[in-house]
Amino acid sequence: MSTRSARSVTRRQILAGTGAVGAGIAFSGAVDELFAGDGAVARADGPAGLGDAGAAAGAGRAGYGPLVEDPAGILDLPHGFRYTVLSREGEPLRSGEGPVPSHCDGMAAFPGRHGSVHLVRNHENRRDAEHRVPAIQDVTYDPEGLGGCTALEVSGGRLRSERVAIAGTAVNCAGGPTPWRTWLTCEETEDLAGTNGYTKDHGFIFEVDPYRRDRTVPEPLTAMGRFQHEAIAVDPRDGTVYETEDAFDKPFGLFYRFLPKRPMGGAGSLRAGGRLEALRVPDVPDLSAVREPGTVFERVEWAKVPDPLARRTPIRFQDFGARGITHAQKLEGCYWGGDRVYFVSSYARTKEGSRADHFGQVWSYEPRARRLALVIVFGPSTDVGKPGESPDNICLAPRGGLMVCEDGAGAQHVFGVTRRREVYPMARNRQNIGTGSDPEWGEFAGVTFAPDGRTMFVNVYEPGTTFAVTGPWHRT
Known about the structure:
By secondary structure, the chain is an all-beta fold. The protein has a single domain (27-470), classed as Neuraminidase. 0% of the residues lie in helices and 35% in strands. It contains no helices and 28 strands. It is globular.
């Protein structure tokens, strides 16, 4: 998610008009492919994002119109939409366990009783976080870790409860939901015990129960690897877990799959271990070199990770043999749709060591055919020739299309993308404009929809804020 690397591009966003006019991002590629599978409306037995394929049939064509400036100076939305601030960092947690932690990041929505929604929210806290995740007995991994997750319950548009879900972890960036209704939270760090004051090794995935804290075990899923995790997606057919590695400097990150010993075994089954492998595209050491949407690689390979725990050498530095391994800069969002997994490269820059420049890619991998395809390329922008910003968290919208969290310089937005490759603004963060702080830290994160598709939940990273957005989602 967020890094403190210097941004070489600054730009303004022009948000007048509709469709892609001034939206700041241009797309090319087979966008239809993204909506051929599941929509974001959940089945009764699964989390949001694993729903019926028919939900995608009503994909939007022109968005919801221009953004309307919020007189309160918090969140600009299209006409007819409303927001509620559910939670803000520094305010008391409803549980009384301390203040709401800083740096709200990845998030997922799960169905509750009587129409309620359970949210699990990451907190990407490093050692300098103002508000740590409180260390709660029985769910704290490392007392010196300031990150973790909080669990929220929303009913009738109101926050009903809010508590610590797991604590003592570090730099909890994104993650993803499982078909058995748990959340896998990912640490985006490789710090070992004794580094930065930590008492235990970090860089792992942890499983969190969104409903009951007593069912969360604060133990890392070590077989899934120790690296700078970003996000995961689970194949609901066989339980394979796909993982992205967010590395912005060389050697760049890898795209992984984890083959569990107890696939689809329910909560806790991933602790039984499994095999971690990394994607190898023959003769393609860097995915940034692939420029044309629609490019397909048949029968790609998977290489066993030599040392998943990275005891001496980070995985991306390890020796994968004479055939090498395939890297990519800033691998971030990851989600499952239809019969394939999608993953995002947020950007690539030759001056930082990539083979080519781009402003964002979306890739798809079909496990049964072992086929990898470049689906979408982001940028350059329609905004007076300036580059489009980096895509980060992405989710499928309930009536088809994508919602994309922007992570770049300047004003920060949630953008929508339709089947016709039309880009439209869905939200703009105004609370960070004119404050004198770096607008980058006002990025959006964790966009997700309620299981009934009527509410979009999204975070602002700093100051950590969770919003619920309602309105005429049917008006597409």
